[in-house]
Amino acid sequence: MFDPSGIAVVGASASEGKIGYEAMANAAAFDGPVYPVNPSGSGTLFGEPFVESVSDIGGDVDLALCCVPGPALPDVLEECGEAGIGAAVVYASGFAEAGDEGERLQARVVDVADEHDVSLLGPNTSGFVVPERDLRCSFASGVEKIPAGNTAVVAQSGGVAHVLAFQSRRQGRGVSAMVGLGNRANVGFTEAIDYFDGDERTDAIVLHVEGTDDGRGLLEACRESDTPVVAYKVGQSDVGEFAESHTGALTGDHELYTAGFAQYGVPTVDATDDLLDAAAALGNSPEPAGPNVGVVTAQAGPGIIVTDRIQRAGGRLPELGAETRARIDDVLPGVTYTGNPVDTGRPMPEFGELVTAVAEDDAVDIVLVYELFEEALGFPVASLSGLAERVGKPVLFATEGVEEEMAEEKAALAEAGVPTFETPERAADAAGVLARYAELSARVAAEEVSRDA
């Protein structure tokens, strides 16, 4: 599905606005053969000649994008299976989310897919995108603008998948893949997590979860993943009927889900932006050894916000060691606050030295730096570059300023692999996720050792 040699767009249409046209328009960018399939089609579509059936395709095809009504799907999948096509995206709705008749139709579809060993994404999904491969198996517009990154977005809702992907573009981060699971006919959270855990393009996996009838499978896949996983479970209030009509989701008790995620080592968040921030922190950093955060700020006000927010988000602010305090006092002899957080009062040429001193403190597991941009001084890029890898700790950076004035410096931080945030709250919350991840991972590891013993 996510690495096809060729694609068939079944139900391709020459009529703009129809799913068969929009899906073909996006898929045509793929660097491989893309075949428009429609028995009533004639001529070419995006330079490719129409084919009557998938069985008439001469070349290799691994993936079918099914732009057909639900009742036609069993026959289409039968043809795909007989043609050796191993994966299909089903855009149509009207299945398990639509009542008893839809459930019966979905059961038929799954039976056909299982008989022919076809992996199904959907039904009732807007598809997926793998930007690095120009693999745009979505009918939504604008997906060609989603940049490549290292976060895999796995969302129960295709709409939320696209929301996250477009947010990642706005944040300048991008995704390794964006997947809308829809009704999860036979490809669900378990299969997706397992796949992206082994994907070399992916360094973090984020989940949007409405509900599932295989909660144990979801949690075990998260625990088995070597790639960090962060989850956003919606449904704290009563949205059960709405969610079930959306993707056939059984929302269940929200507190049970969040407790289950915690038990299996997965931190949870409460917003889409938080998901992407957490992924940036986890996916671009060494794994934190603990929840202790060292803060260095060039302005006291944002530093107070950061300090307060980190502690509410699950992090701790340890006392810095005597050697670290002496190093700081050499640079800031009694000028401002030199505990934790370290406050310099304003940016300064030695700012990077202070960050390095805090990062090298044995009591610190995570470093968070806040500095409003001053053009005359810039950011301590040289000090931050490679620092996280050298000390084996996450180093996060937050700032604000006029975008065009700090664009070059922010680009340098991105090039150096430093996770960067635009508000003190978002940076602090990301540090809080790192802290919770460290504690949850340690608890899971200890439980596994206890079980083995």
Automatic annotation (TrEMBL):
It comes from the Archaea. It comes from Halogeometricum limi. It catalyses: acetate + ATP + CoA = acetyl-CoA + ADP + phosphate. This is acetate--CoA ligase (ADP-forming). Residues 1-95 form the CoA-binding domain. It is an enzyme of class 6 (ligase). Its EC number is 6.2.1.13. It holds the Pfam family Succ_CoA_lig. GO terms for molecular function: acetate-CoA ligase (ADP-forming) activity; ATP binding. Keywords: ATP-binding, Ligase, Nucleotide-binding. The lineage of its organism: Archaea, Methanobacteriati, Methanobacteriota, Stenosarchaea group, Halobacteria.
